[in-house]
# Entry
Amino acid sequence: MNQAAPILEKGSRDAGLDQIVKLAVMAVGGQGGGVLNGWIVRLAERNGYVAQATSVAGVAQRTGATIYYVEMMPDTGRQPVFALAPAEGDVDILIAAEMMEAGRAIMRGFVTPDRTLLIASTHRALAVSEKIVPGSGIADAAEVRRAAEKAARDFIAFDMDRMAEEAGTVISAALFGALAGSGALPFEVESYRETIRESGRGVEASLRAFETAREAAEARRQETEPARAPKPPEAQVTGPKALVAEWQRLVERAAALPGEEAQRLARAGLKKVVDYQDLAYGAAYMDRVEAAAARDARAGGAAHAHAFTANAAKYLANAMCYDDIIRVADLKTRAPRAARIDKEMRKGDEHLIRVTEYVHPGAAEVVSLMPAGLGRWIEARPKVWRGIDRVVNHGRRIRSDRVAGFLMFYTLGGLRRWRRRLLRHQVEEAHWTEWLEAAEARLPRDYALAVETLKARRLIKGYSDTHKRGLNKYDKVMSGIALVEGREDAADWANRLIQAALKDPEGKALEDALQTVRSFTTAGAA
# Structure
């Protein structure tokens, strides 16, 4: 990223039309776009500028964003003529409150390499069209990022939504901080802070998010060359120096993998597994990914853009971060969740919110939390199993906003330090080890089929009944892959089976596809 130069120099007061600063904000409902718009106007006015703000409302449900547009210039005593909406190729600063909004701004021509500073949050707020697709319908944010780096004069991007959640506010405060840290406007940082303070509501939380994002944006701006292993704020680890050093070593291992896509996915997977468990778990993840990369290299992975390594990094991270009671409890007691609930419920200082969790554990969930040996002993004794199920298999409503309920979930979440000794972990580890070995065994004979074998893991997700249904589909797909192995079109058929499994919850499409695959075996035997 090139260093962003101020759009106007500090102290300039002899401005012509070419010194009008043109700034657009693209945001969706709930992101505080209107608040940010107001802050920018007030910031300009407190620094002796005249400004005009307009907004064009988008359509609900993420089919379009609201565009907030501000034009400003130093006050010369004459009334300037400002435009009411942004024009293609005529925007100095574009702020996108979500990655796909940055992509839409680029497509509309608002971002140009000769003048536009693009500030974007890298998080995703999924559109309805992405949510309704079985499996994963999520658009590729990496493509948007690559386009942004080419389309913009300067590009500042990191997860501002996470920063806002951790501070207990909405993303507008973090976007305002990123604008301050970019150095694009000729205003002192304290002027930004005063603008937030005079708003009078949620000031402390907004300032926390502002400062975090400002510091991150300043760091981006001051970079003169790309680091060997980029560490976005969401992937940083704080704590004692030894932990930070260990994290850095893990990141460097991910950066040493062959292929940019494998490196990117490994960094994301590493962040996920460390957050899920700990640094030791991250090291175990990297051990397996590096082993997959070594086998990939021996199988000629370079000719395939190291697709096997990339998919191993992606789906192994998902497999190692399986949903269990510990994970659910941990997420329910994290500070960002409380902040998110407050934001979604539009909680004010005068409001109190009751949070009731509905839980319905059965014997399977309870036994999975036991040490592996004890859990297997109970599984082998149906009477004991049924006795446990009679005791625990009842729906419960627990108030997590109360001390007793919160402590119960907090204690369950704290069990993660022992997770690797528990029955559920050993079952999951055996399962993903078998899956990896199946893919690696196919690698020397059929590279594409080995990659599809890795992709079959995407069928397993969620917990309880959702997990069981996914596991059942996965088993059926793997049995079908075994039937087509050795055919020239084996990889194509494996992909068809996976897509059929994702197509409908009932599994009819998968059964039809399996029936076709079985006919191959019958025809061959005849």
Notes: The chain has a mean pLDDT of 85. The longest helix spans residues 464-484. The chain has 23 helices and eight strands. The beta strands are 21-27, 49-56, 66-74, 93-96, 117-121, 154-158, 356-359, 396-399.
